[in-house]
Specification:
Number of strands: 8
Strand content: 5-15%
Helix content: 40-55%
CATH architecture: Orthogonal Bundle
Bound molecules: zinc ion
Strand order of the largest sheet: 6-5-8-7
Amino acid sequence: MLRAAIALGWLAVVALDPAPASAWGYQGHRVVGSIADQLLKPAAKAQVQQILNDFDTHGIDLRKAAPWPDCVKSVVRHDDGKFHYEVDPDHIEFEVPCTPFNSTRERARIVDYAARNWSTCSYTPDGFERGCHNTFHFLDVAIQRSYVDRGLQGTNPHDLVAAIEAAIAVLQGKPIPPPFPFSIKDRKEALLLLAHFIGDLHQPLHVGSVYLDGNGRLVDPDVAHKVDPDTETNGGNAIEDSVAVPFQVINLHHEWDDIPTDLGDAATGELVDAAKSVPPSQGALESWPAAWATDTLLVAHDAFKGLVFKPAQPPAPAKWTVTYDNHIDYLQAADAIKRKQLAKGGARLAELLNTIWP
Ligand SMILES: [Zn+2]
């Protein structure tokens, strides 16, 4: 559930190192994948097993697959235009969930995917060029909205919902819906993406966002028909929570990427039970990604409830600071929301695959 670390390591990243930050929050993705693994019916399970495992990868299930699109964030483009997978020596922990994919051929797959999806849009959230594929992980719909719809600020043709729709199409053997030129070369790539993006779709700060004026008051970008880049919160990545851990900068997005530590990085019985009681999705499969995004947007209303934003004072690295009515209460509420969202993510990933392969 990442998109996080950009602001977390802000000082070092901005001053010295234009390399993209990588895999935070892989535990959440593994939990979602692991729940889905347990809820797959035999036909879907066989397909998943067959697609994810070939001459290079063995024993890959949805749990192991789910962090893959964050591993792609270790790909950088050099000045000569060539792409390379680079392990960040300061953050070797980013590689932990990527080890199932460190064979020569799997690394080449990661680099090839990043290269094919690098320049299809421009994405420079912190002044450095990031590959377009980074945008596939999120939407930034204003929390004043109660539904997700194309055309709202914070949506675009290469956002999370569009990326999920593209991956589903590939798994179904259908053409990727236009207009955006996603490049997903085969069913393995599509499934690696889907296992991750369904997790992202259930992280409230990957879907709902606050838009602020210069003083930190909420503004409505859909009424103004514009977004001020100077005050953008980047899905909470530009909002610093200095209360959470004294002397350490944690941004609000990252705080939501972290999952309760007792969950570890696999499904617990509690979460599998919760997943089994998630109501089935209504309507045609094609309508599910947007409907799930709407559901998460409503959860994001709660994630932002009671928060007050102020411009950060130098030398604070982020643009904004956040204060809470009661920080302990907020963290407790967040803990409960996260458990529910992880269960929903796992249930819906399984539901989707069970529907594609009945
Ligand atoms: Zn992600």
